[in-house]
Amino acid sequence: MTNNFRRSPRWFRAINAGWNGSYFLGTKIRLDKDELIRSARKITGLENLGGDFNDEPLERLLKAANEEANLHPIGRFITRERFVSLLSIRLRAEYFFKKHPQILEQELYPAWIIVGLQRTGTTKLQRLLAEDTDHRVIPSWEVINPVPISLELYDLSPAHLLTRSPVYPLSGDKRIAIANTSVKALKFMSPGFFAIHPIDAMQPEEDILMLDVSFMSTTPEAMMHVPSYSGWLEQTDQSQAYAYAAKLLKFMQWIRPAKRWVLKTPHHLEFPDLIEKNFGEVHFLWPHRDLQESVPSFLSMVTYNRMIFSDQVDERQVADHWVRKIGYMLGKAISYRLKGNNAAKFTDIIYTDLIADSITELTKIYSLNGGMTPELAERFRRHELEHPHRKHGIHQYSMADFGLTEAEINRHTSRYGQFISENYGRKQA
Question: If DSSP codes are grouped into helix, strand and coil, which group holds residue 288?
Fold first, then answer.
């Protein structure tokens, strides 16, 4: 590791070393599909994963995690707990869908979908837009567990929902406590991560975790080295994952109504067609930043992610995988955008403009919806004062950390570079 990466804490390394040394006693965590499903069913007391559940993505992911990821003991433990949690979410969701079929009869709200690459201001933009009470976002505590842990906590009967309190979550909902514990654990395990991406249990997070419930997203390849899984995923129709994500969004808007979804994840750059097909009325907000800054910044974040799961993280391997992948994602988005009248479905945001004068950029977005009110502008300004840029420290990174050159980035992203040049001159950063 270079000096830009803070090693895992000493206690973390000590636990891994001791645990690894005890494998001969049978302490190695199993990552087995049938065992994971049995555990989720035991925890929830439920059996039905849904008629649209496909176990092939989970099987392929487990094979890659077991054979390629070089997970250390804590990494294996976290992976197992996370997969059991995802299966449990699906079991609980199916319980509610069956008990209250009216949930799936809804139309999804119109949505603004933030589709920029990682490290281009997407988090800042979403958290600003979340200040608008007309908007429905998914806070971190709800992303981790989109369906309540307690099956009886929320009364979803139509009569109750007509008179329900707007307070959400309800007193007694365990999900905030679970999220706060997760945030604290991340701070202990990866002290340098928060300067890259500050996590707050109450602030919105990426809806890519709705796709994780189908085990079809780029989350695993951001967390660990799973090339066989990521290669398979890139060539596989992900319609089923997006269809199920839409079902989870319907559940969440049923519990807490609003007027518009504000969602974001770079993963959506690959699949704007599936977004439009499954999410209904959408408009894409696409932040842009100089790739020579955003790419190494993201590679740094991936490296920190992988250090939580493995002590064999190769920065050059991270770069080789993700620089190509980023070019592929950008190419897919541009191809969609250039078809027919799709260009009208996009609003571009320049990263440096968003950082320098967010109100002007937000005003541009709100022209899609009749304009911004003075009250909203004041709310946005107050949010920025309370959440200043680099609040959690300065994120240090460089292309040298990954043995990367500008030419390599340009080679994989030339089509995007041409698109930016034609539309904005050299204005990316």
Answer: strand
Distance between CA atoms of residues 71 and 146, nearest Å: 27
Report helix, strand or coil for 164: coil
What are the chain's domains? Answer: 110-424 (3.40.50.300)
For residues 57 and 83, give the distance between their C-alpha atoms in angstroms, rounded to a whole number: 12
Residue in this structure with the two tokens 């707050």, named with its chain if needed: 200
> Tokens at residue 424, please?
């904005």
Tokens representing residue 148 in the block: 């309540």
Cis peptide before 169 (omega within 30 of 0): yes
Q: Give residue for tokens 């479905």.
A: 345
Give residue 52's identity as a one-letter amino acid code: D
Global model pTM greater than 0.85: yes
248-299 pLDDT per residue, tens: 999 999 989 999 999 999 999 999 999 999 999 999 999 999 999 999 989 9
Closest CA to 244 of 104, 390, 396, 73: 104
Nearest to 83 by CA among 191, 260, 226, 252: 226
